[in-house]
Structure formats: structure tokens, C-alpha cells
Write a structure and sequence with these properties.
This protein is of the alpha/beta class. 46% of the residues lie in helices and 15% in strands. It has three domains: 183 residues, Rossmann fold (3-Layer(aba) Sandwich); 75 residues, Alpha-Beta Plaits (2-Layer Sandwich), CATH 3.30.70; 176 residues, 3-Layer(aba) Sandwich (Rossmann fold), CATH 3.40.50.2300. Bound molecules: magnesium ion.
Length: 457
């Protein structure tokens, strides 16, 4: 299929989104996108110009950047030297946010599942000089870039016959290698979802990818109404935008940087009032817009006070509401809130608080890291005695697996939220916006959030 270059249209879209003050998430595949395909995958590298260009872009305000690859996380990070960047390796199964890391909990089963077939594949590798088996923490790749077309066909036929005999795995050809993973393991789309939840679920996504293993990421971006961009002739057809090659991507990013740079000053003025196009419908956004700085900490306190959110357990477990982090001005403004948070950390206190004034609260946030089963008991109590009071259980991304275990063992409805200021503020905005702008939706959404599985897939 002949595709027409859509760089102009794409540039206009990204610039206009940025101009609105929205965070722009620029996410890239590595091989075939940021770095040209080379005969030996171990020799692939980004050009110095590309590296410098990405470094410039990531320094702009309101830009979030990430690189997602089938390579192991360690290998990927050794090839990309860009600060403030999130990395996802092993096709999305290992994510490094910088401060936190997240891994597909199913990954640990991978090598046990392929134990029988690996020696068989290694025997074929010996028969085809120029091929190799690259082991990663949760997957492996069979590389055959070094073979002639006819030899490659023979190698693939033998390898696929063996792979077919192994249940519970999936495999696909990408850049003249066969990538092998567990069936239903995390892919780049799921990794992007985790990244959005971690940083800002409302950011505008642009994903650049060149091959089949970018399909899920491109699908996810389409679902989020972002920009799905294919690079080169092998890019999945679901990409709505198209650039001919990494070289053209380079030129595109050059132009984009110039455009965004000229807008930076205007955007920084707008970013303090993140009302966005729909914000005027909701008082929550006015509350945030009244804040003078970019520090999200006062924003969460304002939001909690204005919306009467009961917070359970955040004070001593995470420093989330550490008195040392709250300015004296803030304490003067919200004495009720301060004392309320200070003293609600267990079921008895929650019972007292809700018995006296349940109708006062619009939402309860429960910190899952409370000791023992305190959080579970609190959630059970609220579900039983105050079934109409919305309740959200928060958990750090790094503790995601714990939340899943708790959910399975205790049948407690959980909505996992990463305990970062930006992410929590963003998630709460969404929650209030949805429920205030469409009150009839409340019961349905509430029911759904209460019964939703925390499974990331
Ligand atoms: Mg690629």
C-alpha cells in the first residue's frame, strides 16, 4: 500500500494540542524508529543528532517522553541517553519510571514455560550460522538478520515448528527476528496504559513505531484519541499518520521542536489554569486554576478540602500528608482538614467519623498500605454500612501486585491509583468531572469502580 506522508498534518495537531496547555506525551519504539535497522541488532544505535534532538525536546515544559522496545530494559537503557525519560523493555513487561519500576507479575513463569523448547531451538541456531538466541528477563528473541532470504525461510520454518509445540506462549516476527513471550503477557499497549496512569492519564499521546510489535501501542493511542504514527513501509496500517523513515522522523522532530519552543512561554502561562476546553464545566478545574504555582501538593489539599474527601491512612505511611510538608499558611486555611487527616488511620476512627457525618463526605480515599488488614476492614465496613458512599483504594504502582492479591483473597473492590501527586490529582479530577457533569452516571460508574478488577490486562 502506498501511503502519503502526513508530517505537516501531524505537526499541526501536536502543536495545537501543546498550545492548549496539555501535556504532550512523545513515545517511541527504538529499532526501526529512533535507530535504523542494521544487520546485527547488537550494533543498532541512535545517531548523535537524534539523541541531541530528543534531549532538547524533553527539556521543554509539558513534555513527557518514553522509549518502548522489545529489547531488555537493561539493553534499551544502555542505548538511549536521555534524562527524564521512561523506558519499557521486553516488549512492555519491564517499565522504569525513573523513581519506580514495574514488572509484569506473570513474567517470572516465562523461563519455566519454555524450558523444554529452548535446547531444541539452540540446536537449530547451531545449524544456521549468523542466527542467535537473545535471552531477556521475561522473553527471548531468535535473530536471523544475518541470513540470506532463502536460508531465513528455512530457519523460520524449523523454529516455528518447535514454537508451535509449546503451549502458553505467543510469537511474532519483528525486524527479522522472532519475539517469543508468554501468552497474554504485558505488551507495549499495556505498558503505555501504566505509564499514563503513573504520570498523567490526561496527557495527549503520540506514539511512533515501525513494526508489528507496535500494534498494541498504536491501538491504545487510537483508543485514547491520540496520534498513532507509523514509520516506514512495515508499520501497522492502524497508524493514522505516517512518516517514511527514521530519517524523516528526525526532520519532523526538528520542526516540532522549533514550533513548540516558540510556544513554550505562552504554554507555561496557560499551564497554571489547566481548565482545558472542558474545564469550564466543572468547579474542580476552577479550584485548580486558582493555584498560582505548578507544585501539585497544594492542589491536592485544596481539592480534598473543597470536595470533602475523607482520607484514611495517608499521614504516617507515606508522608503524603506529612505535617512537615504542609505550609503553615495551608494549615491555617484548612484546620478542619488537617486535624481530620491527622487522626483517621484505623477502623474505629473511620466508624466514628462516618457515624457522625457520613453525608458530609463526597468520597473516601483509603491507603492500601495501612498495616495488616486495616484497609480491607475499612473498605468492608464502608461497603456494608454506607453503600452509596464512593470509595477509592489507592496503591502505589510498585505495590500493584499486592493490590491484586488482596483483591483475589478478599473480594474487595479496588481502583488502583498511583500515589504520586500529579497522577492522583489527575485521577480525582476525572472522577469528579465525570460524576458532576453527569449525575445519572454516578451509580453506574460507582458500581463499575467498585466491581472493577485491578488486573492490568
Ligand atoms: Mg521497531
Amino acid at each position: 500500500m502506498i501511503r502519503s506522508n502526513t508530517s505537516t498534518k501531524l505537526g499541526e495537531l501536536l502543536t495545537s494540542v501543546y498550545q492548549e496547555g496539555k501535556t504532550l506525551g512523545l513515545f517511541f519504539d527504538f529499532d526501526g524508529t529512533l535507530a535504523p535497522i542494521v544487520p546485527l541488532s547488537s550494533q543498532a544505535q541512535m545517531s548523535e543528532r537524534m539523541n541531541a534532538q530528543l534531549n532538547q525536546l524533553v527539556q521543554l515544559d509539558n513534555i513527557k517522553m518514553g522509549v518502548l522496545s522489545g529489547r531488555s530494559l537493561e539493553d534499551l537503557k544502555s542505548r538511549v541517553d536521555i534524562p527524564k525519560t521512561v523506558f519499557a523493555g521486553s516488549g512492555g513487561m519491564e517499565i522504569d519510571f525513573g523513581k519506580d519500576q514495574l514488572y509484569d507479575p506473570k513474567g517470572g513463569n516465562f523461563w519455566l514455560s519454555v524450558e523444554r523448547i529452548v535446547p531444541l531451538l539452540e540446536r537449530i541456531i547451531e545449524d544456521f550460522p549468523g542466527t542467535r538466541l537473545e535471552k531477556k528477563p521475561y522473553s527471548f528473541s531468535l535473530h536471523f538478520r544475518g541470513l540470506s532470504p532463502s536460508m531465513a525461510t528455512g530457519f523460520q520454518a524449523y523454529a516455528i515448528e518447535i514454537l508451535r509445540s509449546c503451549s502458553g506462549i505467543r510469537y511474532r516476527e519483528v525486524c527479522q527476528s522472532i519475539e517469543v513471550q508468554l501468552h497474554k503477557s504485558w505488551d507495549k499497549g499495556i505498558a503505555l496504559d501504566h505509564i499514563c496512569r503513573y504520570f498523567d492519564n490526561d496527557m495527549f499521546l503520540a506514539y511512533f513505531g515501525d513494526d508489528l510489535n507496535d500494534t498494541e501501542a498504536l491501538e491504545y493511542v487510537n483508543k485514547k484519541k491520540g496520534a498513532a504514527i507509523g514509520i516506514g513501509d512495515h508499520a501497522p496500517i492502524i497508524a493514522k499518520y505516517y512518516l517514511e523513515s527514521p530519517r524523516q522522523l528526525h526532520k519532523f522532530l526538528d520542526d516540532l521542536y522549533s514550533d513548540l519552543k516558540s510556544l513554550t512561554r505562552k504554554v507555561s502561562l496557560k499551564s497554571n489554569c489547566r481548565s482545558r476546553s472542558r474545564g469550564t464545566k466543572s468547579s474542580v478545574f476552577h479550584c485548580i486554576a486558582s493555584d498560582d504555582g505548578d507544585d501539585p501538593e497544594p492542589k491536592i489539599h485544596q481539592l480534598i478540602q473543597q470536595k470533602n474527601i475523607l482520607c484514611v491512612g495517608f499521614l504516617d505511611s507515606s508522608g503524603f500528608f506529612d505535617p512537615a510538608l504542609i505550609s503553615s499558611d495551608m494549615i491555617d486555611k484548612i484546620p478542619d482538614f488537617y486535624s481530620r487527616v491527622d487522626h483517621v488511620n484505623n477502623l474505629i476512627e473511620v466508624e466514628d467519623m462516618l457515624y457522625e457525618s457520613a453525608s458530609h463526605f463526597s468520597l473516601v480515599l483509603v491507603d492500601l498500605r495501612l498495616k495488616g488488614l486495616e484497609a480491607v476492614n475499612i473498605l468492608n465496613y464502608i461497603n456494608t454500612h454506607f453503600p452509596n458512599l464512593p470509595c477509592i483504594a489507592c496503591v502505589e504502582s510498585i505495590n500493584f501486585q499486592n493490590a491484586m492479591i488482596w483483591k483475589r483473597n478478599n473480594k474487595i473492590p479496588l481502583l488502583p491509583l498511583p500515589l504520586r501527586w500529579e497522577a492522583l490529582v489527575s485521577a480525582l479530577h476525572h472522577w469528579f468531572y465525570d460524576h458532576e457533569s453527569n449525575p445519572t452516571k454516578k451509580s453506574l460508574e460507582l458500581h463499575r469502580s467498585r466491581s472493577a478488577s485491578v488486573s492490568p490486562s
